Amino acid sequence: MTGLRERKKWETRRRISDVATGMFLARGFDDVTIAEVAEAAGVSRMTVFNYFPRKEDLFLDRSAETVVDFRQAISERGLGEPVAEALRRLHLGWLAERHPMSGVVEHGKAFWKVVDETPALRARTLEQQDELRAELVDMLRAEGFDETGATLGAGFVAAAHGTVYDTARLRIMAGDKVTKVHAGQKAVVERVFDALADALRGLESH
């Protein structure tokens, strides 16, 4: 029952965000109100705020889901499997399904244009990056990394994730076709996570 309730909550959250994202892309972030999002999504303003305390998170909605995916990949990896390999598999899975966090998405150019043009969204993006690093420190501590190793390792993991995402984003923004970016992105993931594996190797045993 708990699993069903949680799934329904995530489905409601996603529906609200999808409606809001469509409105923001069509009209601009600043020109859409929470009341309009609530009406279009068929929920109350309070329901929107319960799921998204900040308007920016309606558009930058994948942060919480990303933390869950990272935590699951790390905590549920096979016995003896390095953290970097679990995260490589996560990113390759995202790429295969063209998950938004892979950076390889059809609507990406329009999405990133709204972010670039909206100071509040740019600021929130930086905050979410800091929040992810803080969550990663906790995840690595739970896996036996000492304080220094967890902090350093979290920085390495966040940098790897950002590099993979930004490589795709910058190519698409520069005009490369999404299909072309997708075709070359697996090599990017492999190279980045090879480097991450080397960086974390000396930290996991301490």
TrEMBL record:
Residues 33-52 bind DNA. It comes from the Bacteria. Keywords: DNA-binding, Transcription, Transcription regulation. InterPro entries: Homeodomain-like_sf (IPR009057), HTH-type_TetR-like_transc_reg (IPR050109), HTH_TetR (IPR001647). Residues 10-70 form the HTH tetR-type domain. Gene3D superfamilies: Tetracycline Repressor, domain 2. GO terms for molecular function: DNA-binding transcription factor activity; transcription cis-regulatory region binding. PANTHER family: HTH-TYPE TRANSCRIPTIONAL REGULATOR BETI, HTH-TYPE TRANSCRIPTIONAL REGULATOR RUTR. This is AcrR family transcriptional regulator. The lineage of its organism: Bacteria, Bacillati, Actinomycetota, Actinomycetes, Propionibacteriales.
